Each structure stands twice: as structure tokens, then as C-alpha cells.
Amino acid sequence: MATSSVSKGCFVFKPNFKKRKISVPIEDYFNKGKDESEDSKLRFETYHLIWQQMKSETQRLQEELNKNLFDSLIEFLQKSHSGFQKNSKDWGSQIKLREIPTAALVLGVNVTDHDLTFRSLTEALQSHVTPYVVSLQSKDCPDVKHFLQKLVSQLMDCCVDVESKEEESAQKKTHCSMDSLSSWYTNVTQKTDPKMPRKKRTSSQWQSPPVVLILKDMESFTTKVLQDFIIISSQHLHEFPLILIFGIATSPIIIHRLLPHAVSSLLCIELFQSLSCKEHLTTVLDKLLLTTQFPFKLSEKVLQILTNIFLYHDFSIQNFIKGLQLSLLEHFYSQPLSVLCCSLPEAKRRIHSLSDNQCENIRRLPSFRRYVEKQASEKQVALLTDERFLKEEAQSLLENLYVYHTNYFLVLRCLHQFTSSLPKYPLGRQIRELYCTCLEKNIWDSEEYASALQLLRMLAKDELMTILEKCFKVFKSSSEKQLGSTAKKIEELLAQFQSLDEAKEEEDTSGSHSKGLQKTDLYHLQKSLLEMKELRRTSKKQTKFEVLREKVVNFIDSLVREYLLPPETQPLHEAVYFSAAHTLREHLNAAPRVALHTALNNPYYYLKNEALKSEEGCIPNVAPDICIAYKLHLECSRLINLVDWSEFIRGTPTTAWLPSSAMSAPGIRTSEPRAAEKRNVRT
């Protein structure tokens, strides 16, 4: 570009408009990524269907968890504004101390999830309380001037009247102050119809709706900015009804640390606590993984990686769900038999259309090979040679896998009811901890399980009956025949416990009658007590309750040993379980230094160019320039000098020497005479 300037200077030119690159759809990457795989389109469609179901279930769960919190917040805001709504003239008299209604919303340290919560809260407030809801962040409000500018700009965008948009756009450009805000609020609220019945009036048609200001990250705001704004707002509260919502990530004590008593006394604060992150995670796992609604499952190592990232990094439910989505995508991308990871009727239908290669993939599965080894010799030959017989057997195995999951989760919940209230929680307090233990190994072989059984043998009758009633409700919801009989067995045990109470009452009444008829002195009483004590010491006979309690513990132990087998024991579990923990760790918890070393030391790992393949320790001629420099640096990092380096690169062959297969390799340009010198400069 040329300029008309005579003197030297620096000129800024806007770049030309570049056409936006069209991103490759995910289905194309999914289909072209594995050339040898079959049914890639069907696998992608299955992945998309399962993920949409999981996503909708997650959103529904999020709404349910936030419902109680939002309802209490809305009730508080409506009560706080009821006085001003009834009679605006009495607003100042009702809050003589000029207190601003303030909701301290403690959301926890999972800051990445706060945006979604505040977005849902804004929608709920706009539909039930007021159309004037403003959300501010500390990075946009370094001082009071910018604070008011952001407040005015967002507040005027919430205006309901379309005709006044031109006037408000002009007001945005004027000086922003609380006086201008108050006059704007008065003009806007006077335009609403005061004669409209209150029952028919929506939040956007209120005569005097409040203005709700949400400070998303209250801890990050400057102390002086908060103090000045609160003091100014309290002076205009009678004409500008403001309600504050503080988003707090740590503790409510931060309010008193940031604000002195003279300022905090201007606030009428009420505390609201959201559901803890760990409880939220347990609920998500319960709805997405500990159920037969979704066929996709995670192995123990993969689940441990996701939970460790959650517990030790960010406490973010959204990041956990993204990790779950990545696991689902990687499973359908890398596992050819993931085409069977669907509902049971659909999986049976797809087995009929399996090709010969897919049947061979089934035979190569480690779980299926172990299953074949346990069969008779004739059946082994049929499974390895007859495609039709293999498909019929695969249908039966998938059905058994579905029944296994149904029984597994029911018994897991029953065991959790027994162990979640034990002292020191030997098997974990949350059901996810118990689930990880059961996925890893035979839980009955662990010391924690043995100690849990010992503690169960010490439970009181009331505690035992309460737990049995909860387990009865769990098994009663099952439609399986075997576990239906389990519910009847638990019901019989409860009836036996109740009969113990009746028998004890009869013994007490009969004992009282006999004691009333006989007269005993102190000597005979002591003698009888000593005899009873000696008899208990010698015989050690258990009471009826102890016998029944032992029966309950043995019954639960038999259920655990029968149904809580690890998934690796089930044939064809690879079709629904994702176990590539190393791949998931590389994506979610990657080490940048390791990734850079791999890319520079072995460029074929990422570029997938056949010309870049080389033996370990060799430097290929077609490698990118930076890879050659990095390998030379690894060989002799302390002995490198520019002269030797230049001589080496001068001696590297140009493209004229290279075969045609290496012409497209990165780092190779053209066969110019001075290509080596140019390559030296680039390096």
C-alpha cells in the first residue's frame, strides 16, 4: 500500500476481508478417520442419538436441581418489592434505614458452571419477577463510571416499549448517573397501564417492577467501586427500586471483608446456598451411568480420571459432562463393535446384518475368547466357524449383558443403603465410590468389605429395619423375576423382625405376672443372676434377634457375590464399555511439554505422512526444519555451534534429490539452487 506522506512514519492499514474458513463437519471427520472401519455413518448416528438423550437428561436434571434455589430467590425478591409495588410513596417509610434488598448467592468454587446458573436465573427472574435484570462482571467495572455505563446500557436494552428505543439510544450517549437512571425508570414505568388487573399483568407489565442487579463475581469487584455504588443507590432507593444479587464462590464472610459496617448496614442481606458440587456430581452419575436407560458405560480407570479431574482441579459439572461426551465420541470412533451400543431390540436387529469382518471382530474380543474357552469343544468349533450360530449366540450374550446391568445397579443401590451409614464409611460415603470399587475388582475380596460386614453385624434393630425398608423399595421397582423374589425375601425378613417385637411384649407381660406371684429375697436374686451370667459365658447362645441379623447380613453378602461381578467377566462388554483411559488422559489432562517433544521428535505421530516414517535415532531428510533442528539439539545440545549447523543444513538434499513420495512432506519447498541456504535461514 502507498501513502501520500513525505516523512517517515508508521501507518496502520486494515486487513482485507478474508473469507471465513468452513469448518469440517464432525461426521466427515468421523467417517474418514478410519478407512478400514465399517458402518461409520451408523456409528456416528448412534453416537449423536445417545448424546442428545444424555444432553436433554442433563438439562432436565439441572433445572430440577436449581428449581428449589430459584423458587426461594423469587419469593425473596417478590416479598422485598411488595411494599414498593403496593404504594411507592410509602417505600421510604417502610425501609427507614434505606436498606437495599440483597441476596447472597453462594454457588461454590466451580466458577465455570456459574455462567449457566446465572443465565437460567436471569430467564427465571424475567419471567416471574421483572423484565429489568442486569448482570455485571468485575472486569467490565474498574470504576464507578464504567459500572454505571454498563448498568445503563444493559438496563435500557431490557426496555419493553419499542417506541422509546430511539430515545433510550440517545440517553445511552449522555452522562450516566443515578439521577438519569431514576428519571428514565420513572418515564418507563409511567407508560405501563395502571388500570390493568394484577392477575392479568405479567412481569413486563408491572406498574413498578424492581431492577435486579446481579454481580456474578462479587469477590473480584474493587472495594471502592462497591462501596460508592451501594451508598449512591441507597440515596435513590425511593425512586429507583434496586435489588442486588451477589454471586459468591467462597464464603459469605467476604461481604463483610469487602464492605465496612457503614456500607453493609445499608444492605438487607439474606443467604442462599446452592447444591454442593459433590452432591451434584453424584446425581449426574446416578442419572447417566447408574441406569439402564443409556447403554454406554465407563470403565473404572476412565471414571476415576473424570472424577479426579473434577475433585482435584475445577469442581465443574460442565467439564465433567464434556469429558463424558469425549469418552462417548472416542468409544464410537475407535471401537468397530460400538455399533451394538444401543437399545437391546435395536442391537439384536443389527447383529443380523453384521458382515464377516465384524463377526471376526467379535471373535477377537478378549471377553469373547474367554467365553469360548469355557464352552464344549463342539460349541467352540461352531462359534469360530459358523457365522449364523455366532450371531444367535451374540444376541443371547447381549441380552445377558442387559440383565446383568439391571441386576447390578439394583444390588449396588441396596449395598449402598447398608454401607453409607456405617462409621468411618469403609466402602465410601457416596455411591460413586462404591461403584468404582465394584468396577475395579471383586469387592468381597477387599478388607473394606470385610470390615463393613463386621459393622453390619453390630447394627441395632431399628437401624436394620429402616435399611431393609429402603432396600425393599429399591427391589420392588424391578420387573426381573429373580430380584422380584428378592423383594419378597426382604419383606419376609421385615415380618420376622416385627414378630420379634410381639414375642418380646408377650414375654414381658408373662414375666411381670410371674414376678407378681413369687416373692424373692436379695440372696436368691443375686444367685439367679450369677447363674444366668455363667450360663451365657459357657453356652454363648445367640438371641433370636442376633440370629435374624446374621441371616440378613448373609443374605446381602450372597446378593453381592452373585450380582456385583466386575464388567470384565461379562462377554461382549467391550461393545458398551469405554476403557481407553490413556487416550482420555491425553486429551483432558495433557502435558504440553510431552506433546511438543512427541511432535518434534516424531512428526509422523501427528502429521500421518508416510514419508516421515523413520527408525528411532535417525533424522529423515524430509522432516520439517524445526524437527531437524530439535533432533540435532537433542544429540549434542552443549556442542552445537552455528558453523557446524550451517554446514550440515547446506549438505541436506533439496527436493530435486528426493523421491516423488516425499515431495508433499512438510519442510520441503522447491528445488531452487539456494534451497539449502534458505532452509538454513528458516531453521
Automatic annotation (TrEMBL):
Domain Origin recognition complex subunit 3 insertion: 351-582
Protein task: Component of the origin recognition complex (ORC) that binds origins of replication. DNA-binding is ATP-dependent. The specific DNA sequences that define origins of replication have not been identified yet. ORC is required to assemble the pre-replication complex necessary to initiate DNA replication. Binds histone H3 and H4 trimethylation marks H3K9me3, H3K27me3 and H4K20me3.
Family: Belongs to the ORC3 family.
Protein name per Swiss-Prot or TrEMBL: Origin recognition complex subunit 3
GO terms for cellular component: DNA replication preinitiation complex; nuclear origin of replication recognition complex; nuclear pre-replicative complex
Predominant location: nucleus
Compartment list: Nucleus
Skewed-composition ranges (Basic and acidic residues): 671-683
Disordered as annotated region, ranges: 661-683
Domain Origin recognition complex subunit 3 winged helix C-terminal: 593-646
InterPro entries: ORC3, ORC3_ins, ORC3_N, ORC_WH_C
Gene Ontology terms for molecular function: DNA replication origin binding
Annotated ranges, domain Origin recognition complex subunit 3 N-terminal: 1-340
GO process terms (BP): DNA replication initiation
Assembly notes: Component of ORC, a complex composed of at least 6 subunits: ORC1, ORC2, ORC3, ORC4, ORC5 and ORC6. ORC is regulated in a cell-cycle dependent manner. It is sequentially assembled at the exit from anaphase of mitosis and disassembled as cells enter S phase.
Keyword line: DNA replication, DNA-binding, Nucleus, Phosphoprotein
Domain of life: Eukaryota
